[in-house]
Amino acid sequence: MIPPFLRRGDVVGICATARWLTDEQIESAVRVIEGWGLHADVDPQVVKRHFQLAGDDSVRREALQRMMDRTDVSAILIARGGYGTVRIIDGLNWSGFLRSPKWVCGYSDITVLHAELARLGVASIHCSMPVSFPDCTPEALENLRAALTGELREFRWNCSTAGTISARGKMWGGNLSVLCSLLGSATLHDEPGRLLFIEDVDEMHYHVDRMLTALTRAGYLNGVQAVIAGGFTQMRDNTREFGFKTDNPWGSLPAELLMQHFGESPGLVRDMPAGHLNDNRAFYMGLDTVLQVNDGHAVLSFSI
Fold it and tell me: Could you tell me the CA-to-CA distances from 67 to 63, 81, 91, 127 in Å, in that order?
């Protein structure tokens, strides 16, 4: 299912399924959204605090459920990531949402929602969230606006991939750590013929290898048409540089690990400007997508 695209005056609902925001952070995001000719409706829950979470599990679940059930809301933008979305996913009632689907938008911890929506057969938008709007590049914010309104037909970037790759499938995936945390659950629904997108932040080098190996052994790479890697930022190793007493490096950087796992088959495309980056550009997940790579130039084309 492809939710209806937004038109001028439509409502973007904002709630928090993980960490909280301040009033100032919300106000900044509201100015951006209303500058697009849309109306931002912020659930008061986003500033509630239960330690690092935006309210306890019941508060966060109820806020998302309200947004899902509201017939006047055309898109749901999750305020920020962190951790906590997986704690509320099982208590949601999707029946009303499936009768009248709307765009769910976010990344990082919101990979949980993207995975659940993929299981349910509903397209979603991988994108920056309000907490990061002040630091986003103009291109990242423009991609989000275009994705919401249905104007995003292509996503182009320069990559370090030599040669050619041609693949077709629905975009799937998100944050690597979150995907691995869903292994064995009903949420992580496997469907052959997909394009797998992965990104991560603040992980040890050997953790990256462990997670890629886990996904491989669990069979989630069977039938994947191509792997697209976004940012792998703030990565650390077992060295003195990162506070360890001795140098005991893993031996492979994340880029090298990705090549080891995916370089030959199904094929790897790196450097997509998406993930924990200021230039975190929006793109569709769950839509039929064509990937074309030709000597350092990559293009995703979306069927809308």
Answer: 7, 17, 15, 18
Confirm if 105 and 127 have CB atoms less than 8 A apart.
yes
Query: Using the 8-state DSSP alphabet, how is residue 36 labeled?
Result: T
Structural domains in the chain, sorted by start: 11-152 (3.40.50.10740), 155-302 (3.50.30.60)
Q: CA–CA distance from 209 to each of 137, 256, 260 (Å)?
A: 30, 10, 9
The CA R_g of the chain, rounded to the nearest whole Å, is 19
pLDDT in tens, the chain (304 residues): 999 999 999 999 999 999 999 999 999 999 999 999 999 999 999 999 999 999 999 999 999 999 999 999 999 999 999 999 999 999 999 999 999 999 999 999 999 999 999 999 999 999 999 999 999 999 999 999 999 999 999 999 999 887 899 999 999 999 999 999 999 999 998 888 899 999 999 999 999 999 999 999 999 888 899 999 999 999 999 888 888 888 999 989 888 999 998 877 778 999 999 999 999 999 999 999 999 999 899 999 998 8
